[in-house]
Every structure is written in C-alpha cells, then in structure tokens.
Write a structure and sequence with these properties.
about 300 residues; mainly alpha; Na+/H+ antiporter like fold; globular
Length: about 300
C-alpha cells in the first residue's frame, strides 16, 4: 500500500497545486484556458502517439483489453437506462449523471499508468483512449440531445467532431505506425518523450485548476450515486470482464486504472455546449476527483 500511495501522491499533489494556483490567480486567469488547449492539441497527442507506436500491442492482449473496456461501457449504459426509469431521473440532470458515470479522465489514467506500470501500461491506457473516446463522445452527444432539450446534432456533425479530435487522430496514427512496423528516428522519439513529460504535468495542473469545491446540498444524493457508479461499479464491471476474457498482468491492471479514475473534466464542456446540467456536472467532476484519491489506491492495493 505504501508503494501505491507513493506512486499516486505526486499525481494528487499536482492536481492540488493546480487548484491552489488558479485560486490565487497565478499566473493569471488567461493562462489556464491556454494551458488546456496546448495540452489537448499538442502534449497529449504526442504522448498517445508515442506510447502506441512504440509498444508491442500483440503481446499485451490489446484486443481483449479493448473488448473489456467497451463491454463495461455498454453495460453501464444499460444500467443507467434502467435506473433512469426506476428512480425517475430525467432531463438535463440525467445527462450529467450519465456522463459522470460513464466518462473517465484519461489524463489521470495516463499519469498513473506511466508511474505505476511503465511503458507497457502507458501503451495499454492509450489503446483504451483510442477505443473509448469516440464511443463515449457519440453516446454522450446522443444522450444530451435526446434528454437535455438541446438542438440535435446530426450524424455528420458528430462524425466531424470525432474526425477532428486530436486524441483520436494521434491514437489512429500510432496504431498505423505500430501495425506497419515503421521505425521512428531517434530525434523524433526523443522529442515525443519530452512532450510526453510535459503532457502529464500540464494535464494534472489543468485538472486541479478546473475543480470547484462549493457543492449544492440538494444534489448530495445524486452526486453520491454518480460517484459510486463511476468509482465502484465501473471497476467491478471491468474486473468481471477481465476475468471472463482472461485479461491478466499489466493489461488487467491498466484496465482497472482506466475504470477507477474520476470523471473527465471535458464532461462539463459538453454539458455546457449541449444544454446539460453544467453546474451539477462540474460538481460531479469535483466529487469524483476527490473521492478517487481514496478509492483508487484501495483498488490498486486489492488487485496487486
């Protein structure tokens, strides 16, 4: 447990530092949106491309790994549909409950995989992003346009958003290079390594800067439900899937990391753009991020 906490502590401290810096207005409010854009469009695509392109995906059971994550995702979607009818969740609030339970913070997962599992774990997490990001975006947009009263997005618009996503482009490019077994020049790989280091630091600082610690008391029950679904039920689904498909070793641990990280901060942006309950979404991101600091090390300890 001490080893696990030692690995997770720097991740938590960087998130906390981002929160503190934003609250003391350093280096300025305009800095944080710029950092998010730089991380999203430059640093993380470099990290994802390098991790996938330079790994032996075949030996890591990448196909079964992806199948487990996708299976758990659709199982959670079915469970949420049942709970919506039983409990009466509806409208914009349901769309944020949906996103909060389904979406996962790939930036946190990458940082933990890199520190805890090394290059192989980083590659598997990148594969998870490659298959989960487009699927989650399609499901989230569909749910928001159906239940939030927002203007429906046409299939062409959704496809355009996915094709232009820099994370998806980087993952697909990395897979193409990996499958073709193309050698990468030393200078290029070293540049990717430097950008990857910047990605993990900048991404965690940006997550901390986005947190909001003022929570609405009337949403406590729903926030508890979302957090439980995301941080307890989803890892349980993934653990069952790994057992059924015989996913073990680094791939199993990487899958559990992907399942146990908090809700993605991008959920708030999508909720705000498409008519979801954005304030509740921001609270769900904050609560799941803080709670994951407790649940994630426990899960890693139990599966070690």
């Amino acid at each position: 447990m001490i080893t696990i906490l030692g690995v997770l502590a720097p991740v938590i401290l960087l998130i906390a530092l981002g929160y503190v810096l934003r609250r003391i207005a350093f280096p300025g409010e305009e800095f944080w949106p710029a950092l998010e854009r730089l991380t999203y469009f430059v640093f993380y695509p470099a990290l994802l491309f390098g991790a996938i392109a330079q790994s032996d995906l075949a030996s890591l059971s990448a196909g079964r790994f992806a199948a487990v994550l996708m299976g758990s995702l659709f199982t959670m979607a079915a469970l949420l549909a049942i709970l919506r009818r039983l409990i009466g969740w509806g409208g914009p609030r349901y769309t944020s409950i949906y996103q909060g339970s389904m979406r996962w913070n790939g930036f946190v997962a990458l940082a933990i995989a890199d520190a805890y599992l090394g290059a192989d774990g980083l590659a598997m997490t990148a594969v998870g992003i490659a298959c989960m990001v487009p699927t989650l975006n399609i499901l989230s947009v569909f749910t928001l346009t159906r239940h939030a009263g927002a203007e429906p997005q046409t299939p062409r618009k959704v496809l355009t958003l996915l094709v232009q996503n820099p994370l998806i482009i980087a993952c697909l490019a990395g897979i193409a290079v990996n499958v073709a077994n193309l050698p990468l020049p030393f200078v290029f790989t070293e540049t990717l390594s430097l950008l990857s280091d910047a990605a993990l630091t900048a991404g965690l600082l940006a997550i901390g800067a986005s947190l909001q610690l003022v929570l609405a008391k009337d949403a406590a029950a729903q926030l508890t439900a979302v957090t439980g679904l995301k941080l307890v039920v989803m890892p349980l689904f993934v653990a069952i899937g790994c057992s059924l498909l015989d996913v073990a070793g680094v791939a199993f641990t990487a899958a559990m990391v992907c399942a146990a990280v908090p809700t993605a901060t991008s959920s708030y942006i999508l909720a705000r753009q498409l008519g979801g309950d954005a304030p509740f979404m921001a609270q769900a991101v904050t609560v799941s991020t803080l709670t994951a600091a407790i649940t994630l090390p426990l899960i890693l300890y139990l599966i070690r």
